[in-house]
Amino acid sequence: xxxxxxxxxxxxxxxxxxxxxxxxxxxxxxxxxxxxxxxxxxxxxxxxxxxxxxxxxxxxxxxxxxxxxxxxxxxxxxxxxxxxxxxxxxxxxxxxxxxxxxxxxxxxxxxxxxxxxxxxxxxxxxxxxxxxxxxxxxxxxxxxxxxxxxxxxxxxxxxxxxxxxxxxxxxxxxxxxxxxxxxxxxxxxxxxxxxxxxxxxxxxxxxxxxxxxxxxxxxxxxxxxxxxxxxxxxxxxxxxxxxxxxxxxxxxxxxxxxxxxxxxx
Length: 265
Known about the structure:
32% of the residues lie in helices and 24% in strands. It has 265 residues and is an alpha+beta fold.
């Protein structure tokens, strides 16, 4: 895994935040919003709260084990609890500190375990997967633009030129409760995953992103630098952040209380 965040060519401050931990198979990316630089407070709080809780709780959780009622892996409950607690912290801070009023953040967080991936997201930060030279978006934006695309009011091409691309319909910390979308995917050796803020995909087409990942996927630091540079060369109108994670081989979970330890990278 590698992570890179850049303020871009227009913004004075970077309101994105990223965190990775190879040993846990964890990657988190947040894109903050709010006046008086409160966006960077929200994204920073999200990263700190979620990463801290995951690190504290994961050693005692068998991520692969299924809940008998829901049938979902324990990883889902872990992610949803951490997100709910982070949402509460951000919401209360925004209420109690006037300079932070109205702040919030998008979020995408992944856990790799047991040859699979769990991803939770809120807002329009994305997770992509490159497999067999095919790039696919695994998350669906919580945005006004996406709703209009889904309803047939806009085509994908028309959406690229819309002036309200950044209007999200869901964000962490805006309300006292928030619903995160959460899904599971089987992973394969050679898969390359990209978490990014909209500062990347607003500036680049999926084809451009795919080409850069295919050309430089064997060198993740260079690939991340190239993606950020391409976004800046295209205008860099927003902060741009990327996390790249490549699956090098099997990381089947050992059935023990320490099964979350991943020797896969």
